[in-house]
Amino acid sequence: MDISIHSSFLPQTDPEASLAFYRDTLGFEVRNDVGYNGLRWITVGPAGQPNTSIVLHPPAVTPGITEDERRTISEMMAKGTFGMLILATADLDKTFAKLQAEDAEIVEEPTMQPYGVRDCAVRDPAGNLLRIQERT
Predict the structure, then answer these.
(1) Residues 106/122, Cβ–Cβ less than 8 Å
(2) Using an 8 Å Cβ cutoff, are 92 and 134 in contact?
(3) Is the Cβ–Cβ distance between 33 and 54 less than 8 Å?
(4) What is the model's pLDDT at position 46?
(5) pLDDT per position as a tens digit, 25-75
(6) CB 44 within 8 A of CB 8
(7) How many Å separate Cα 69 from the centre of its chain?
């Protein structure tokens, strides 16, 4: 089989803040920005990796969920426990310094984890947890 990851979805609650974070802070390319009924779906991805994207979507429009589920999703997003992504960088200290300079919400400074990975953690504007590992 020839299968790859094409897109992952993360919820966003403020399209402009999410766009600024992923484009300006992380340096991702904007691949698509689609509006419909006052809502926006923004597709971003790392430069030089055109086949890998993250779709930042409005969480309230997921088909088939109840109002109670919407409330639960909102509560989990606020705590940073709903969406998560693991990214990688060749220079974790440089990346972390840029995140700090851009006032990203820091969850954990660069740390050597007991499972053998050096990483840090931040939250995006919607509360999604992003762990950034150092590539070795």
Answers:
(1) yes
(2) yes
(3) no
(4) 95
(5) 999 999 999 999 888 999 999 999 999 999 999 987 778 889 899 889 889
(6) no
(7) 21
Residues 6+ apart with CB under 8 A from 125: 12, 13, 14, 17, 18, 20, 21
Longest dimension (CA), the chain: 47
Band (pLDDT 50/70/90 cuts) for residue 96 is: very high
What's the pTM?
Answer: 0.91
Q: Which two tokens mark 36?
A: 């419909």
Q: What 3 state SS string does the chain have?
A: CCCCCCEEEEECCCHHHHHHHHHHHCCCEEEEEEEECCEEEEEEECCCCCCCEEEEECHHHCCCCCHHHHHHHHHHHHHCCCCEEEEEECCHHHHHHHHHHCCCEEEEEEEECCCCCEEEEEECCCCCEEEEEECC
